[in-house]
Amino acid sequence: MLLKAVPILVLFLCGACLALDTWSWANHGKPPVYTEMAYMKSGWSDKVFGVGNGKLQERYWSTSSWSWIWANHGAPWGLLSNEYLAGPPCVMKDGRVYIISNKGRLFERYWSTGSNTWLWAIHGKPFGWVTLRYSGCACTSGGGGVARVFAVGTNSRLYEHYWSWSSNAWVWRDHGTPPGTSIGPAAIATCNLATCSTQVFVVGANRYLYSLYITSANPGVATWYYRGKPTGEYVHGVSVGPAGVFVTTYDNDICEYRSSNWYCHGKPSGSLSTPSTTISGAFPVDQCAQISDTPSSTRMIFINSWDPGYIKRSRIYSLKVKNTNNGQWRYHGTIGSCCYYVGAPELFLSGTCPKAFFTQSNGYVRELWVH
């Protein structure tokens, strides 16, 4: 594929907290889960999925009992010897959950309307000897309604598994690497809402940000675009949400890619590190009455950072970004000496207000919500 000139990409973004806002923690217990969570909207219910001990776990809000409930989806059929679910799930917004195993194969848990039950499907691996990194996947049902799942191979190339209308089957596609570099170790990210175009963001091995844009046809024409890096910094990890694209840098700063420009928001006071997998997607919060001072396009992210005084003790922060370039940081506490938070916070909107879910290294899941 050819590297084309970067088109103007307008991203309306939104950000984090104020001292007047009231946030509370809720403990969801221990199924256990050891990966970061993935959100799914299902009718009137909120659901989050995670993996622990090789099993897929679901936490959902029951409108009948008006409470949160755990559902154990177990392990898929067809596992190889010593194979188990390993990676954090990625969710397609039509009732499909994808997980990569420790042997680099892709599995799916989906709701069958015909059977009125959850079923497993094996999608395997791309081609020949190629296996997938189980550090994560990304998926979308946007871009003309085409179902697409993306993952990086152990050969550092980007692969897509999409539903082919002509073949009436799932098909693998090799998208290779950004021009002149391979894909770095950081997780990939894409907008997974049907209203978003299909655009997958990756960090190159050269520590620059790239995106793969796919047109709305099936399968669609794919083109790599160079997005660059913040001035004087290098990109470590990337996270994408409906309110924009945020990255962590090797200088431990949080920066934002908006309208083909870079804006950096620094790091919270007391933060030692912001690793590549510890930043949530960005969500709009300007319609949430429980959060003060939110003009149009206000956006929010959550960060899982390290406490500088302790080894592997997490600190949770939120960042609220308004129409200015300077974001507002807020500290939401730490766990203590028992454990630390695993991976990225999972942020989503319940109604018009944000909720964030966090996984602890001891298998417990916690929630932070505003009221």
UniProtKB/TrEMBL annotation:
<protein>
    <submittedName>
        <fullName>Uncharacterized protein LOC106176947</fullName>
    </submittedName>
</protein>
<feature type="signal peptide">
    <location>
        <begin position="1"/>
        <end position="19"/>
    </location>
</feature>
<keyword id="KW-0732">Signal</keyword>
